[in-house]
């Protein structure tokens, strides 16, 4: 059978083009890679190369022909042992055989249900549907109660983070810490204090100031099964490295069809510190929470910090672990148990209440609890939820709470546009719309870069009073 | 071995370096890549391959020569012009082609495409789509080898376009600082998409790009598989001796456009024809085989037929393998903890 030469597409969107020129004539011999024709579209001119060798048996489409459909037969090549008679059977129907590519011809296949196709939710069964919410995807035992501990010790967040790393490094040789000033300097914020002494410079690695490079390196090491804990001096600097966090760490498992996992933790202080200006004061929670393939954690207390960092290090996926510099020195009770680990994806009700739900994470949890005290004095019973994990989101706990209180205030330091509060408002609208007695209120940072001046900085950040005011507003008080 | 940028080697011909069997092997491997890529180009033209498709035609000697310098335990990572690297690593052409067509039988089960394929079994780590992104990743693979005390090297390929990315120098610095076993293979095909090296690089000698970090480098005729292999062996030996990274600038040429939709109007036809006629890597080995009486024309034709049949089989598999099940949309996003 003679070999059909088809009109090629220059791009997936091309459907037809002009056969501008033949550079061979019937009877010419051609080999693989020889240019035989030129085709044109409105965008470009391209050469057509022979893929097989043989003799040009017949030119079907004359040069200069316009609107030749992609995949139409434009010529026949005779193989070595064929002569022109082989063309008798084929040339009769030389009309363009414009068979569209299978991908284009195929009808849109119905994809399995996803968040995009979530149907409006009626009041009943809200909990069941909340449990199916893809935002909560992969939450294991979402309703499992936190293990109870009897013995506690008082620790700062800083110490809790350090202990979490040290404990995991003791039990797993593949865990190592890498970042700027993590070893000899003992950590820019002293979070890695003592690690160099205990584990040596093979496992506690001081890097140059080179976020893009060392984040890519740690990601490559994680592809090979090491478990790097990458410290960013602050998450503001991770902007240099966000390409590797998203494009390499978060997407490779999917792109490799499940072959290459990436067990890595990216940690460091996130959000505003004090008087450090616009480039050192941003909250990145919603940036990372946007991306499938990542888990995003934002602890508040020392117990959160310890239990969740241990969980993050043990997790086989890339985890973005957002700490807060102001919290580093604050003390909390932490279970005195080497096996203390908290489940990722599970929020904690820090204070029970009946009139309004306040959802917060990281430093805003403390402000929310103080606001709740103020509200109690004014006769409003606020329930405060500490999210602990942003992605996957504990939809269940939030929905249950709102079904009880019928009012919701979200709190975050970050900007409101496309923020975490916006996502939570959407969750509640989808799953508990009929339970709401007031529109959801969001308490966020002001929509400005962080100012330096002390008075302006206070105004830019969400404060306890904003939460109190928002809670009263949704209670119509 | 000397320290900083080393000799510039226009031709490091090493005719006695390869046995007859080796030459035949290189010939077949390069031919497989070429025929595979021609077929891929054809399937793209038929609409069976979508999106971006960057062909390796013309550059075959680089990857075949480098693979001849390492063992199967060494790692390989590259950018999106990756089909040749995968075939040279011994990955199944049918699995690669089926990934190009986005089918279930592809290496990433159709979820990666031309630019994103991996094989843990063959120590091939992608397949990365952001220019230069594979360079710190490959450096990290080498960090892992050193951390575990393994006698392995990571070949990290990058193009002449990627050498201007900042992360490349961040990687050079740390690799040299920590003496990591990584060979940076700069495939200088002289065009960063449509911008020629003269227009994108202040200094044309890319093998010197590690000079500031004390990384030795050499320029190699990347159209000569034996020269590549010989330089590759020097580079790999340097790494295995614990001396840290090494840079090879492999001067090569891609016959096709940057991707399938690039008509390559930024260079002359004469330039391309000259390379194809005078420096074709496959013709060069063919001549050695014939002149050395290692094989005759008929023998070469048998190899050709054999390779063609393998590629035809791969193309058939790639067209008949079903598209991934729709449930695949939601798999491989996270590993169950």
TrEMBL record, chain A:
Residues 90-103, 112-124 have a biased composition (Low complexity). Its cofactor is thiamine diphosphate; (R)-lipoate. Coiled coil: none annotated. Residues 88-135 are annotated as: Disordered. It catalyses: N(6)-[(R)-lipoyl]-L-lysyl-[protein] + pyruvate + H(+) = N(6)-[(R)-S(8)-acetyldihydrolipoyl]-L-lysyl-[protein] + CO2. GO terms for biological process: pyruvate decarboxylation to acetyl-CoA. Keywords: Lipoyl, Metal-binding, Oxidoreductase, Potassium, Pyruvate, Thiamine pyrophosphate, Transit peptide. Its EC number is 1.2.4.1. Gene3D superfamilies: 2.40.50.100, 3.40.50.920, 3.40.50.970. GO terms for molecular function: metal ion binding; pyruvate dehydrogenase (acetyl-transferring) activity. Pfam families: Biotin_lipoyl (PF00364), Transket_pyr (PF02779), Transketolase_C (PF02780). InterPro entries: 2-oxoA_DH_lipoyl-BS, Biotin_lipoyl, PDHB_mito-type, Single_hybrid_motif, THDP-binding, Transketo_C/PFOR_II, Transketolase-like_Pyr-bd, Transketolase_C. Residues 2-78 form the Lipoyl-binding domain. Heterodimer of an alpha and a beta chain. The pyruvate dehydrogenase complex catalyzes the overall conversion of pyruvate to acetyl-CoA and CO2. This is Pyruvate dehydrogenase E1 component subunit beta. The lineage of its organism: Bacteria, Pseudomonadati, Pseudomonadota, Alphaproteobacteria, Rhodospirillales.
TrEMBL record, chain B:
InterPro entries: DH_E1 (IPR001017), PDH_E1_Alpha_Subunit (IPR050642), Pyrv_DH_E1_asu_subgrp-y (IPR017597), THDP-binding (IPR029061). The keyword Methyltransferase does not apply. It catalyses: N(6)-[(R)-lipoyl]-L-lysyl-[protein] + pyruvate + H(+) = N(6)-[(R)-S(8)-acetyldihydrolipoyl]-L-lysyl-[protein] + CO2. Its cofactor is thiamine diphosphate. SUPFAM superfamilies: Thiamin diphosphate-binding fold (THDP-binding). GO terms for biological process: pyruvate decarboxylation to acetyl-CoA. This is Pyruvate dehydrogenase E1 component subunit alpha.
